[in-house]
Write a structure and sequence with these properties.
Blueprint lengths: L1 E5 L4 H12 L3 E5 L11 H6 L2 E4 L6 H4 L8 E4 L6 H6 L1 H22 L3 E7 L22 H18 L4 E7 L1 E3 L7 H10 L4 E4 L4 E2 L1 E3 H10 L11 E3 L5 E2 H12 L5 E4 L14 H6 L12 H8 L1
Parallel strand pairs: 1-2, 1-4, 2-3, 4-5, 5-6, 6-11, 7-10, 8-13
Antiparallel strand pairs: 9-12
Helix pairs in contact: 1-8, 5-6, 7-9
The chain binds nicotinamide-adenine-dinucleotide.
Length: 303
């Protein structure tokens, strides 16, 4: 099939591109390289297995003609960093809300069959109960979460209007190689450099889900019809505190760093665990009991 990946030079997008190419799909990437890197997909660009446009989804004219002939659009392009989205509200609004609208409009005009959208656990805001199921109110705590709620609503409206089918994933905290500024890569860098590990507030409970589980879910979303009916949480369903994470990383790397507790950052959601009943029933994916199982592979590759 012919697949488009917006944000395909980023962390999750580039892993998805690897998988789609390995399955023989024709892949087009649109990315403005705001956070993504061409080196993430360099092998594919070199051997011509991926077509790449350095375009900005904020500008409809740049992207409108690119969608013709594509069956499925994975719409991942976004300001994906919570703190960044709060610091520059304009950028996150124009990329995540207007940009999503532009992608959907272009997909409709081109007759795309399905759009798969990566929303976030941040759509829920601070949890009223744990684990958070998909019926939990969408009470975002920050502008990033609000932009994802808006994106979801536009996806649903286009589906309701009969433009195309849509699959909405509310991703928990995804981790894996090529991520660079979220908590796991930061802690891994800290131990590699023998620095203190900083924890904001110290009360966080995080649901970590590995990149391999997320990619499997995205690929199954191409053909899974049940998934189009309503949003699905993609997580491990397990709680991890940042102290547990730091301990685990130090154990795996044979280091012993000081863990320092800094003041909390008020825009961040403190506690989140996904209820993954729907994920487990709608998708055919084995979810390991240990949410941090994939850390071992990452550390192994670093050595
Ligand atoms: N990584 C996570 O834990 C997580 C959790 C929940 C949701 N998500 C969502 O999943 C998607 C992928 O996340 P990621 O972790 O790979 O982030 P990422 O930042 O690595 O990837 C996003 C990509 O979008 C591109 N981009 C940003 N603004 C753009 C614009 N205006 N035009 C074109 N391209 C633009 C960036 O350059 C980047 O390559 C995002 O939509 C993110 O919000 C990620």
């Amino acid at each position: 099939m012919r697949m488009m990946v917006t944000g395909g030079a980023g962390f999750i997008g580039s892993h998805l591109v690897d998988r789609l190419v390995s399955e023989g799909h024709e892949v087009l990437v649109i990315d403005n390289l705001f956070r993504g890197k061409k080196e993430n997909i360099a092998g594919h660009l070199k051997n011509g297995s991926v077509q790449f446009y350095e375009n900005d989804i904020r500008d409809y004219d740049q992207i409108k003609d690119k969608f013709k002939g594509y069956d499925v659009v994975f719409h991942l392009a976004a300001q994906s960093n919570v703190m960044g989205a709060v610091e520059d509200i304009d950028y996150s609004f124009y990329s995540n809300v207007v940009g999503t609208y532009n992608v959907l409009k272009a997909a409709q005009a081109a007759g795309v069959r399905r759009v798969i959208f990566t929303s976030s656990r941040e759509a829920y805001g601070e949890a009223q109960y744990l684990p958070v199921d998909e019926q939990h109110p969408l009470d975002s705590k920050n502008t990033y979460g609000a932009s994802k709620v808006a994106g979801e609503k536009y996806c649903q409206v286009f589906q309701n209007m009969g433009a195309f089918e849509t699959v909405i994933f509310r991703l928990a905290n995804v981790y894996g190689e090529r991520d660079f500024d979220r908590v796991i890569p930061i802690f891994l860098n800290n131990v590699a450099r023998h620095e203190d590990i900083h924890v904001y507030g110290g009360k966080q409970v995080i649901d970590f889900v590995s990149i391999e589980i997320v990619i499997e879910a995205l690929v199954q979303a191409i053909t899974n019809d049940e998934a189009t009916k309503r949003p699905t949480n993609i997580g491990s369903g397990k709680e991890t505190t940042l102290f547990e994470l730091a301990e685990r990383i130090m154990k795996l790397t044979g280091t012993n760093n000081r863990v320092v507790v800094d003041p909390p950052r008020s825009v961040e959601v403190v506690k989140f665990t996904a209820n993954i009943s729907r994920f487990k029933s709608v998708f055919d994916i084995a979810i390991p009991d240990d949410p941090l199982y994939y850390l071992e592979k990452m550390v192994g590759k670093m050595n």
